[in-house]
Write the structure tokens for this entry.
Amino acid sequence: MKKLVTVLGILCFAFTVNAQTEKKAFTISGYGELYYAYDFDKPLNNRRPNYIYSHNRHNEVTVNLAMLKGNYEEGRVRANLALMTGTYANANLSTEPGVLKNIYEANVGIRLHKNKEIWLDAGVMPSHLGAEGAISMDYPTLTRSLFAEGSPYYESGVCLSYKNVSETWYLALLYLNGWQTIQRQSGNSTPSGGTQITYTPNDKITVNWSTFVGSITPDVSRRMRYFSDLYGIVKIGKKLTLTALFDFGSDQSAKGSSNYYGWYTVAAILQYQLNNNASITARGEYFQDAYNRVAGTPIFTDFLVSGYSLGYNYEVMKGVMWRTEAKYYNSYDPIFSGNSLSKRDNLLFTTSLAVRFKR
């Protein structure tokens, strides 16, 4: 931790000096989120279920994500370096070796055409899959939805992207090291890849379709995974925003087999703006992973869970947001447990204070 703090300090100083001399090229940004979550199942080790990666600690005040990022962009070159810590990093990057656990973003890009937005980026990047990412402040709900927890938050590889002049279309083709991994899985030499198409005809509508294909096991037992993510965001009037999503994935049952195990998610999120500083958010979702392909519940095979949440968001001042949320899960099988017997439902209360800056 001391080494991480030292590195962050050096980065902050270096980028600050450069920002003063070349303000248009360099920017520094930071994000920090402190939270408290109370799980009414009272897990014995204070760790919420293993398929939850964000806001996953029970009954303690702690940091979900603290990040410092340096960005450089000038002419036909751009680069990002962001280091992080927090319970999100500890849970979601637990399989990454060494200091890779503290990398949120590390990539460089080259603009391939001087007059068109055609970029080739390589490195560690936020995932192109899903309607939610790790930075809570960027999304309507405080905690992450099941569809976010069941799909990658980050990826590493190469991305070729294009955006037209009017910015109505964004197209991307990706070559990846695998399904949510920085370092390629040992013994796996099978390429993974993905696509992304985003259509934004105006400031009220966004439609996105993203895909992934690749092997999730070493070559000797190669099993292919196929995943499709479709979501839309619609602003209804001046105060209401609807996000609707459908995810579908399938895993090959065995190497060379024509049998596949599938899972899917449907979700809807409504956000209503009360005034310039406050909003309320309601969410409904259903995650069916009958063969336990991505949920990873330790006891029962079936993961058929409905989720509902209601949240309140308040912008204290520019760059500072306080949020609170109540969330309820209901499961077909009794997969939830804590100090009591296994049960079919779970209730969670979470509150957080998030701060961000950019200079």
User: Anything to note?
Assistant: Residues 3-8, 14-22 have pLDDT under 50 and may be disordered. The first strand starts at residue 26 and ends at 39. The radius of gyration is 21 Å.
